Amino acid sequence: MKILIVAYNYPSKYCSADFVFVKMLVDEFARKGHECVVLAPHSVSHHKCLHHGIEEYAVGDNVVKVVRPNYISTSSLTIGKYYISNELHKLVVRHALRHLKFKPDVVYCHFWKQGIEAFPFAKKHELPLFVASGECEIFEDNRKGELKAFCDYVRGVVCVSTKNKDESVSLNLAKPEDCIVVPNSIDNSLFRKRDKAECRRELGLPLDKTIIAFVGWFVDRKGSLRVSKAIEEIPENDVYSIFIGEGPEEPKNPNILFKGKVLHDKVPLFLNAADVFVLPTLQEGCCNAVVEAMACGLPVISSNLPFNWDVLNKDNSIMVDPLNVEEIRQAIIKLRDNVRLRSEMSSAALEMAKELTIQERAHKIISFMQERM
Hints:
Elements: E1 2-7, H1 20-31, E2 35-39, E3 42-43, H2 44-47, E4 54-59, E5 62-67, E6 70-71, E7 78-79, E8 82-83, H3 84-98, E9 106-110, H4 112-124, E10 129-133, H5 147-153, E11 156-159, H6 162-170, E12 179-181, H7 196-203, E13 210-215, H8 224-232, E14 239-244, E15 256-260, H9 267-272, E16 276-279, H10 288-295, E17 300-303, E18 317-320, H11 325-337, H12 339-353, H13 358-372
Parallel strand pairs: 1-2, 1-9, 2-5, 3-6, 9-10, 10-11, 11-12, 13-14, 13-16, 14-15, 16-17, 17-18
Antiparallel strand pairs: 4-5, 7-8
Helix pairs in contact: 1-13, 3-4, 8-11, 10-12
């Protein structure tokens, strides 16, 4: 099958961390023998340079091609209700599609906005159009005029959580019967359980301390400062931490063993050195960091909000009010003091992660598209 993927962003030499999960899925499509072309506009203003030519890289016996037309993004600048960057992105996508030298069998879009951008192309060429709904929040600012015709045309919607499915349906973007829920997934050759002591020795971390890990942007939505404050308020001062990420809300509590960005393929080493994963996030589609932590066998402390309910439960996590620092603190203390509970939750996390591999996710999405074509 020939698949055209339209994405808002896609990893490149300029920013290897952006939308890694999209590349993982495309690579798995290619590994399964499908011909893939990715259309992902390149922001000149963001990356401070032009992009030239078409990228190609090998995946198994296949080659993935990435088309990156240049455009200028304007941050949050608006005219009326319209974000200028969104309109420029739409124009460059539609221009690139008109000149695309590739005849796909299907168009697969990350996310709703990209689906709207690709709609005229798919309709003109009578191609089945699929949308991946994985946004933290589905914005309505661009959904004007052609919305009904677009929604009627979409052949199927791949939702990363039941929350995203319900939101898509409530906004009249999709019918329940046209949706499938397939949570985000992990590369299980990379994110897997390793010996904790070996990982700590490799990183130079203490072997006899309770260590919690946080992975995400240092911003209010992810809760870096709430985690930092919860640790700081533990009276024994005996819980240590790893904060992987960057951003304006940088944690500064005592006992931080590591803080900063790391390459994606180094994240499993840090996760396997920890005892517990903590992420009191406020809004997600389906959080990749949570799934990756579970694949490394970590009990999870995260939000008691619907976007977590497809992957977290009472067996593998403690779900808390993400705005309540005291609840976060008590959950950390509970897992610090109960080694048996940590072990049981670790086993349950690993069991859940078995179902969340990129191979299984790609298989479900391909099967869903083929059934509806």
